[in-house]
Amino acid sequence: ILLLQDLTGIESMDQCRHTLEQHNWNIEAAVQDRLNEQEGVPSVFNPPPSRPLQVNTADHRIYSYVVSRPQPRARWGYYFIMLPFRFTYYTLLDIFRFALRFIRPDPRSRVTDPVGDIISFIHMFEEKYGRIHPVFYQGTYSQALNDAKRELRFLLVYLHGDDHQDTDEFCRNTLCVPEVITLINTRMLFWACSTNKPEGYRVSQALRENTYPFLAVIMLKDRRMTVVGRLEGLIQADDLINQLMFIMDANQTYLVSERLEREERNQTQVLRQQQDEAYLASLRADQEKERKKKEEREMKKRKEEEVQQQKLAEERRRQTLQEEKERKLECLPPEPHPDDPDSVKIIFKLPNDSRVERRFHFTQSLTVIHDFLFSLKESPEKFQIEANFPRRVLPCLPTEEWPNPPTLQEAGLSHTEVLFVQDLTDD
């Protein structure tokens, strides 16, 4: 990470780490990619497209410009004498080359490192012709096609024939002229490679050049990457500029049309996206309303069920209470006769100001008094019985203090008593 910082000037450690991770910790690839980015050059290490673009090379409207080499005046006698020998020589040479392909395939037909082929050609070109030249696209032919399609730009392809007699003159006096450099850098992407490299050889097989130097202008036309111009032979700088301007002017309408269509598609896509977002927002709002309505319905239903459960519980409680009252009433001992000397006459004053009178036996427990009052409809559910003289609460139910409630006589009741019933239901 520190080495990458020193070489590229990146200050953030996190950015350095992220850059190295993107390049599988290949420091050379990371540094080269960063330098390309700073120079505005396409990345060398971008992954190649998953599906290489097919280039249309058979358009009948393709513009072709060929510069023929000046031929010396032929000596017709010598030409006719040598014609049979030349025909035989070249025929046998073609047969030999054809047979040789089956025995030993051309090593250039196997492309193993296309980016390496491009970088190697650029280094060779700069060593031989200097660093003043059009900006080479530092990527594969397929990457250049994809970038030209994505950016809607012209792609100028140059196939370098190392062994051709016009190559040196073209590179020095045409390709590296400042006016040519300015035109190419401002209006085009420029991809070049030697045909001695597997990547260059593969492209030459696809474009089918006839002679060198060879230039092809490729652009997006009718939604296909198409060769719209071919320039072959030793072309001079002014002539090259005129030919490139002519080709670009003749085909500019296709790029403008494609830009308009692409903009329209983008606007349609944006509009559709906005409509989808509006629909989703409306759908979410409707779903939220439905969710709230559902929650309200469920809450209302729960409340109704709770009320119903409370009613049922209250009914069961009242039913149980009534059954308990009836059971207590059935279990009460019979009322003593008024003439019984051991009987006690008790007048009960209820909370509703009504009075109830009944006789009990002195020997009966105070629990009997409580059971009698409990069995009455007028009595509260929970109550206590109080005496006035002296004022006290009678222990009618078992407690820790009185586990066995006392009898009426033990409680100190006289033959006639007035007892007060105190309502404890609210408590």
UniProtKB/TrEMBL annotation:
The record's annotation in Pfam families points to:
FAF1 (PF21021), UBA_8 (PF22566), UBX (PF00789)
For region Disordered, the annotated ranges are 282-344
Its taxonomic path starts at:
Eukaryota, Metazoa, Chordata, Craniata, Vertebrata
What are the residue boundaries of the UBX domain, all occurrences included?
339-421
Q: What is its main location?
A: cytoplasm
Source organism: Nestor notabilis (Kea)
Is this entry keyworded Transferase?
Answer: no
Q: What is this protein's record name?
A: FAS-associated factor 2
InterPro entries (alphabetical): FAF1_2-like_UAS, Thioredoxin-like_sf, UAS, UBA_8, Ubiquitin-like_domsf, UBX_dom, UBX_domain-protein
